[in-house]
Amino acid sequence: MSSMLAAEKKAMRAEMAERRAAAYRAPDAAAKTRDACHRVAALLEDALGSDLTEVVLSGYMPMRSELDPLPAMSAHLGPVCVPVILGKGQPLEFHHWHRDAEMVEGAFKALIPRERAPMRPRAMLVPLLAFDRHGYRLGYGGGFYDRTLEALRAEGPVLAIGFAFEVQEVAQVPTEVTDQKLDAIITPSEMIRP
Predict the structure, then answer these.
(1) Is 3.40.50.2000 the CATH number for 3-192?
(2) How confident is the model at residue 116 (pLDDT cuts 50, 70, 90)?
(3) Which of 38, 18, 22 has its CA nearest to residue 129?
(4) Bridge partners (DSSP) listed for residue 87
(5) Which of 2, 62, 75, 173 is the most buried (most CB within 10 A)?
(6) Beta-ladder partners of 161
């Protein structure tokens, strides 16, 4: 990655973290979370059919000011899993989650299930700092989701859904060849299909 691209991404990460934090603290944040979570089932049904009981959905345990997917994960009719970071430079693994699962701290302080049961997601809710309408996202810089999506897509279809507040949208995310596109983005007010 060129130093100019790295600097552009760093500056955008800082700005978008502030924007996202402001949205997270806003008085209407709980209502926005509910609205975004309601859109998840509609998108999954539209993309994958009306029987979602066999569709494995990967969510994530929200950190910092990320839009909270837990209500959508709890409402999903099929199996749910969450990502587990194995190590730097490696793709994520996914392990079964349910609302009563005992969680422990994993890498980067992300909560992960104490009991591991590996799964392969068919649809993924993906956290991010910024997104654009072309389907690109800006994450935290570790490349975990890009590596993971590349590996999963080599094995078969997976629906990657960015999950974010509206204020996280930018005109264009700075990209490089390793960046994987999202198939959709859900915000509290919109479902975007690039």
Answers:
(1) no
(2) very high
(3) 18
(4) none
(5) 173
(6) 125, 184
